[in-house]
Q: What sequence folds into this?
Protein backbone atom coordinates (compact mmCIF):
# COMPACT_ATOMS: atom_id res chain seq x y z
CA UNK A 1 0.00 0.00 0.00
CA UNK A 2 1.20 3.49 -0.76
CA UNK A 3 -0.51 6.78 -0.09
CA UNK A 4 -1.27 7.64 -3.66
CA UNK A 5 -4.55 7.14 -5.46
CA UNK A 6 -5.59 8.00 -8.97
CA UNK A 7 -9.10 9.39 -9.21
CA UNK A 8 -10.71 9.05 -12.64
CA UNK A 9 -14.16 10.46 -13.34
CA UNK A 10 -16.07 9.49 -16.49
CA UNK A 11 -19.64 10.14 -17.51
CA UNK A 12 -19.54 7.88 -20.49
CA UNK A 13 -21.17 4.79 -21.84
CA UNK A 14 -22.22 2.17 -19.33
CA UNK A 15 -22.35 -1.44 -20.56
CA UNK A 16 -24.74 -3.25 -18.26
CA UNK A 17 -23.55 -6.70 -19.18
CA UNK A 18 -21.72 -8.82 -21.69
CA UNK A 19 -23.73 -11.54 -23.29
CA UNK A 20 -23.65 -13.82 -26.28
CA UNK A 21 -25.85 -12.94 -29.20
CA UNK A 22 -26.90 -14.10 -32.63
CA UNK A 23 -25.65 -11.36 -34.93
CA UNK A 24 -28.21 -12.17 -37.62
CA UNK A 25 -30.21 -9.28 -36.19
CA UNK A 26 -33.18 -7.47 -37.66
CA UNK A 27 -31.27 -4.21 -37.91
CA UNK A 28 -32.42 -2.15 -40.85
CA UNK A 29 -29.79 -1.86 -43.55
CA UNK A 30 -30.90 1.72 -44.23
CA UNK A 31 -30.45 2.89 -40.62
CA UNK A 32 -27.87 5.66 -40.42
CA UNK A 33 -25.82 7.57 -37.88
CA UNK A 34 -25.81 11.34 -38.34
CA UNK A 35 -23.08 13.31 -36.55
CA UNK A 36 -22.53 17.08 -36.36
CA UNK A 37 -18.82 17.82 -35.97
CA UNK A 38 -17.05 21.06 -35.10
CA UNK A 39 -13.37 21.23 -36.07
CA UNK A 40 -10.66 23.81 -35.40
CA UNK A 41 -10.06 25.57 -38.71
CA UNK A 42 -6.41 24.55 -39.13
CA UNK A 43 -7.28 20.85 -38.81
CA UNK A 44 -10.41 20.91 -40.97
CA UNK A 45 -8.95 19.61 -44.25
CA UNK A 46 -6.92 16.88 -42.53
CA UNK A 47 -9.88 15.54 -40.61
CA UNK A 48 -12.17 15.52 -43.64
CA UNK A 49 -9.48 13.65 -45.60
CA UNK A 50 -9.09 11.10 -42.80
CA UNK A 51 -12.83 10.51 -42.63
CA UNK A 52 -12.82 9.65 -46.32
CA UNK A 53 -10.03 7.10 -45.85
CA UNK A 54 -12.02 5.19 -43.20
CA UNK A 55 -14.35 3.72 -45.86
CA UNK A 56 -17.41 4.19 -43.64
CA UNK A 57 -20.43 2.54 -45.32
CA UNK A 58 -22.36 5.03 -47.51
CA UNK A 59 -20.49 7.97 -46.03
CA UNK A 60 -21.77 11.44 -46.93
CA UNK A 61 -20.18 14.70 -45.82
CA UNK A 62 -22.13 17.96 -45.83
CA UNK A 63 -20.22 21.19 -45.24
CA UNK A 64 -22.08 23.65 -43.02
CA UNK A 65 -19.31 26.26 -42.90
CA UNK A 66 -15.52 26.36 -42.65
CA UNK A 67 -15.50 24.73 -39.20
CA UNK A 68 -18.51 22.40 -39.06
CA UNK A 69 -19.61 19.39 -41.06
CA UNK A 70 -22.38 16.82 -40.87
CA UNK A 71 -21.53 13.21 -41.70
CA UNK A 72 -23.86 10.25 -42.16
CA UNK A 73 -23.06 6.56 -42.56
CA UNK A 74 -24.55 3.12 -42.01
CA UNK A 75 -23.38 1.77 -38.61
CA UNK A 76 -22.49 -1.72 -39.81
CA UNK A 77 -18.75 -2.24 -40.11
CA UNK A 78 -17.02 -5.25 -41.63
CA UNK A 79 -13.38 -6.16 -42.08
CA UNK A 80 -12.15 -3.27 -44.22
CA UNK A 81 -13.94 -0.59 -42.17
CA UNK A 82 -12.90 -2.16 -38.87
CA UNK A 83 -9.28 -2.25 -39.95
CA UNK A 84 -9.45 1.50 -40.57
CA UNK A 85 -11.57 2.49 -37.56
CA UNK A 86 -9.70 0.38 -35.02
CA UNK A 87 -6.16 0.94 -36.28
CA UNK A 88 -3.79 1.86 -33.46
CA UNK A 89 -6.65 1.39 -31.00
CA UNK A 90 -5.89 -0.11 -27.60
CA UNK A 91 -8.87 -2.26 -26.55
CA UNK A 92 -8.60 -4.05 -23.23
CA UNK A 93 -10.49 -5.33 -20.20
CA UNK A 94 -9.11 -4.58 -16.74
CA UNK A 95 -9.61 -6.27 -13.41
CA UNK A 96 -11.70 -4.69 -10.67
CA UNK A 97 -11.57 -4.43 -6.89
CA UNK A 98 -14.38 -5.69 -4.68
CA UNK A 99 -15.68 -3.53 -1.87
CA UNK A 100 -14.57 -6.10 0.73
CA UNK A 101 -10.97 -5.63 -0.40
CA UNK A 102 -11.03 -2.09 0.94
CA UNK A 103 -11.40 -3.51 4.45
CA UNK A 104 -12.32 -0.90 7.04
CA UNK A 105 -10.89 1.94 5.04
CA UNK A 106 -12.02 5.45 5.94
CA UNK A 107 -13.18 5.79 2.33
CA UNK A 108 -16.55 4.40 3.44
CA UNK A 109 -17.08 7.45 5.63
CA UNK A 110 -17.32 9.47 2.40
CA UNK A 111 -20.25 7.35 1.28
CA UNK A 112 -21.95 7.51 4.68
CA UNK A 113 -21.83 11.31 4.54
CA UNK A 114 -24.00 11.10 1.43
CA UNK A 115 -26.70 8.88 2.87
CA UNK A 116 -25.26 5.45 2.02
CA UNK A 117 -25.52 3.54 5.30
CA UNK A 118 -24.60 0.13 3.92
CA UNK A 119 -22.83 -1.23 0.84
CA UNK A 120 -25.08 -4.08 -0.25
CA UNK A 121 -23.02 -5.57 -3.06
CA UNK A 122 -19.66 -7.25 -2.76
CA UNK A 123 -18.44 -6.51 -6.25
CA UNK A 124 -16.75 -3.51 -7.82
CA UNK A 125 -20.02 -1.55 -7.96
CA UNK A 126 -19.98 0.50 -4.77
CA UNK A 127 -23.41 2.12 -5.06
CA UNK A 128 -25.40 4.59 -7.14
CA UNK A 129 -25.32 8.28 -6.25
CA UNK A 130 -27.26 11.35 -7.30
CA UNK A 131 -25.36 13.27 -9.98
CA UNK A 132 -25.67 16.37 -7.79
CA UNK A 133 -23.50 14.70 -5.12
CA UNK A 134 -20.59 13.73 -7.36
CA UNK A 135 -18.55 16.94 -7.05
CA UNK A 136 -18.54 16.77 -3.25
CA UNK A 137 -17.72 13.04 -3.32
CA UNK A 138 -14.86 13.59 -5.76
CA UNK A 139 -13.37 16.26 -3.54
CA UNK A 140 -13.61 14.00 -0.48
CA UNK A 141 -12.00 11.07 -2.30
CA UNK A 142 -8.91 13.19 -2.97
CA UNK A 143 -8.18 13.85 0.71
CA UNK A 144 -4.98 12.30 2.01
CA UNK A 145 -6.54 10.84 5.14
CA UNK A 146 -9.13 9.07 2.97
CA UNK A 147 -6.78 7.52 0.42
CA UNK A 148 -3.70 6.80 2.53
CA UNK A 149 -4.55 3.14 3.14
CA UNK A 150 -5.96 2.37 -0.31
CA UNK A 151 -4.09 0.46 -3.07
CA UNK A 152 -2.10 2.73 -5.37
CA UNK A 153 -3.58 1.05 -8.45
CA UNK A 154 -7.18 1.61 -7.34
CA UNK A 155 -9.21 3.89 -9.61
CA UNK A 156 -12.67 5.29 -8.87
CA UNK A 157 -14.78 5.44 -12.02
CA UNK A 158 -18.23 7.01 -12.51
CA UNK A 159 -20.53 5.49 -15.14
CA UNK A 160 -24.00 6.36 -16.38
CA UNK A 161 -27.01 4.33 -15.34
CA UNK A 162 -30.57 4.09 -16.64
CA UNK A 163 -31.90 5.53 -13.39
CA UNK A 164 -32.87 9.18 -13.59
CA UNK A 165 -30.24 11.72 -12.40
CA UNK A 166 -28.07 8.90 -11.09
CA UNK A 167 -24.54 7.61 -11.71
CA UNK A 168 -22.75 4.51 -10.45
CA UNK A 169 -19.37 4.38 -8.71
CA UNK A 170 -16.97 1.51 -9.47
CA UNK A 171 -13.60 0.28 -8.17
CA UNK A 172 -11.04 -0.53 -10.90
CA UNK A 173 -7.55 -1.98 -10.86
CA UNK A 174 -5.88 0.17 -13.50
CA UNK A 175 -2.69 -1.92 -13.66
CA UNK A 176 -4.12 -5.42 -14.11
CA UNK A 177 -5.18 -6.28 -17.65
CA UNK A 178 -7.31 -9.43 -17.90
CA UNK A 179 -7.74 -9.44 -21.66
CA UNK A 180 -6.61 -7.35 -24.63
CA UNK A 181 -8.31 -7.46 -28.04
CA UNK A 182 -6.35 -6.72 -31.18
CA UNK A 183 -8.23 -4.85 -33.90
CA UNK A 184 -7.46 -7.78 -36.20
CA UNK A 185 -9.62 -10.03 -33.99
CA UNK A 186 -12.82 -8.17 -34.93
CA UNK A 187 -14.72 -9.37 -37.99
CA UNK A 188 -17.92 -7.34 -37.60
CA UNK A 189 -19.27 -4.49 -35.50
CA UNK A 190 -22.70 -2.87 -35.67
CA UNK A 191 -24.85 -0.47 -33.67
CA UNK A 192 -28.62 -0.50 -33.55
CA UNK A 193 -31.31 1.46 -31.72
CA UNK A 194 -33.72 -0.11 -29.26
CA UNK A 195 -36.78 1.30 -27.49
CA UNK A 196 -37.39 -0.25 -24.10
CA UNK A 197 -39.43 0.28 -20.95
CA UNK A 198 -36.90 1.47 -18.39
CA UNK A 199 -37.39 1.78 -14.64
CA UNK A 200 -36.56 5.40 -13.80
CA UNK A 201 -37.76 5.74 -10.21
CA UNK A 202 -37.46 3.36 -7.26
CA UNK A 203 -38.70 3.01 -3.70
CA UNK A 204 -36.45 2.65 -0.66
CA UNK A 205 -36.01 -1.07 -1.39
CA UNK A 206 -35.04 -0.32 -5.01
CA UNK A 207 -38.25 -1.73 -6.44
CA UNK A 208 -39.30 0.13 -9.61
CA UNK A 209 -42.15 2.60 -9.09
CA UNK A 210 -42.09 4.39 -12.45
CA UNK A 211 -41.31 3.25 -15.97
CA UNK A 212 -40.61 5.25 -19.14
CA UNK A 213 -39.97 4.37 -22.78
CA UNK A 214 -36.39 5.30 -23.60
CA UNK A 215 -34.01 4.70 -26.46
CA UNK A 216 -30.84 2.80 -25.83
CA UNK A 217 -28.28 1.52 -28.30
CA UNK A 218 -26.99 -1.98 -28.83
CA UNK A 219 -23.39 -2.65 -29.86
CA UNK A 220 -22.87 -6.05 -31.49
CA UNK A 221 -19.46 -7.39 -32.39
CA UNK A 222 -18.07 -10.65 -33.70
CA UNK A 223 -14.55 -11.98 -33.14
CA UNK A 224 -12.36 -14.26 -35.21
CA UNK A 225 -11.33 -17.73 -33.99
CA UNK A 226 -8.42 -16.48 -31.91
CA UNK A 227 -10.44 -13.69 -30.30
CA UNK A 228 -13.33 -16.07 -29.70
CA UNK A 229 -11.09 -18.47 -27.78
CA UNK A 230 -9.65 -15.71 -25.60
CA UNK A 231 -13.08 -14.21 -24.92
CA UNK A 232 -14.50 -17.64 -24.08
CA UNK A 233 -11.82 -18.14 -21.42
CA UNK A 234 -12.32 -14.63 -20.06
CA UNK A 235 -16.08 -15.03 -19.63
CA UNK A 236 -15.93 -18.64 -18.43
CA UNK A 237 -13.60 -17.70 -15.60
CA UNK A 238 -15.39 -14.51 -14.56
CA UNK A 239 -19.14 -15.25 -14.57
CA UNK A 240 -20.88 -12.91 -12.14
CA UNK A 241 -17.88 -10.60 -11.94
CA UNK A 242 -17.37 -7.18 -13.43
CA UNK A 243 -14.51 -6.17 -15.68
CA UNK A 244 -13.59 -2.70 -16.87
CA UNK A 245 -13.67 -1.93 -20.59
CA UNK A 246 -10.86 0.40 -21.66
CA UNK A 247 -10.51 2.06 -25.06
CA UNK A 248 -7.24 3.84 -25.85
CA UNK A 249 -6.33 3.67 -22.14
CA UNK A 250 -9.53 5.51 -21.28
CA UNK A 251 -11.95 3.75 -18.97
CA UNK A 252 -15.30 3.45 -20.75
CA UNK A 253 -17.50 1.10 -18.75
CA UNK A 254 -17.69 -1.69 -16.19
CA UNK A 255 -19.84 -4.53 -17.59
CA UNK A 256 -20.88 -7.59 -15.65
CA UNK A 257 -20.23 -10.98 -17.22
CA UNK A 258 -23.50 -12.92 -17.04
CA UNK A 259 -22.62 -16.06 -19.00
CA UNK A 260 -19.90 -17.83 -20.94
CA UNK A 261 -19.66 -16.46 -24.48
CA UNK A 262 -18.70 -19.36 -26.72
CA UNK A 263 -19.12 -18.17 -30.31
CA UNK A 264 -17.39 -14.79 -30.19
CA UNK A 265 -20.68 -12.97 -30.78
CA UNK A 266 -21.14 -10.30 -28.14
CA UNK A 267 -23.87 -7.76 -27.35
CA UNK A 268 -23.41 -4.72 -25.14
CA UNK A 269 -25.85 -1.93 -24.21
CA UNK A 270 -25.36 1.84 -24.28
CA UNK A 271 -27.68 4.01 -22.22
CA UNK A 272 -28.32 6.98 -24.52
CA UNK A 273 -27.14 9.57 -27.02
CA UNK A 274 -24.32 10.85 -24.84
CA UNK A 275 -22.91 7.34 -24.66
CA UNK A 276 -23.26 6.96 -28.42
CA UNK A 277 -21.50 10.27 -28.92
CA UNK A 278 -18.59 9.25 -26.71
CA UNK A 279 -18.25 5.92 -28.51
CA UNK A 280 -17.90 7.53 -31.93
CA UNK A 281 -15.69 10.27 -30.57
CA UNK A 282 -13.26 7.57 -29.55
CA UNK A 283 -13.63 5.41 -32.67
CA UNK A 284 -13.36 8.21 -35.23
CA UNK A 285 -11.34 10.97 -33.59
CA UNK A 286 -9.21 9.44 -30.83
CA UNK A 287 -6.09 10.95 -32.36
CA UNK A 288 -7.40 14.46 -31.74
CA UNK A 289 -8.07 16.17 -28.43
CA UNK A 290 -11.43 17.73 -27.61
CA UNK A 291 -10.22 21.21 -28.49
CA UNK A 292 -9.53 20.17 -32.08
CA UNK A 293 -12.64 18.04 -32.72
CA UNK A 294 -15.99 18.13 -30.94
CA UNK A 295 -19.12 16.12 -31.66
CA UNK A 296 -21.91 18.63 -31.21
CA UNK A 297 -24.82 16.31 -31.93
CA UNK A 298 -25.62 12.74 -32.91
CA UNK A 299 -28.75 10.98 -34.17
CA UNK A 300 -29.62 7.41 -35.06
CA UNK A 301 -32.16 7.40 -37.90
A:
Amino acid sequence: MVNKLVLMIFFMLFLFDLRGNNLNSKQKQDSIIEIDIEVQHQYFDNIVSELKTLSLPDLTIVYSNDSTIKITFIPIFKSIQLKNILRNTNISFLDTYKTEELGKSSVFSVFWEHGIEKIESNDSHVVDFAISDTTAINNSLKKKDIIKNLPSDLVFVWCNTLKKDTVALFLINKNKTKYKINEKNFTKLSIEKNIANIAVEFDKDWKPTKWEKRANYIVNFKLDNYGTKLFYNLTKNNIGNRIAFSLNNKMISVPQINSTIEKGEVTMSLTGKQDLKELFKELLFSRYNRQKVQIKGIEYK
Observations:
- The two ends are 50 Å apart (CA to CA).
- The CA atoms of residues 250 and 297 lie 22 Å apart.
- The chain is about 20% helix and 40% strand.
- Helices lie at 44-53, 79-85, 107-112, 134-141, 144-147, 225-236, 273-285.
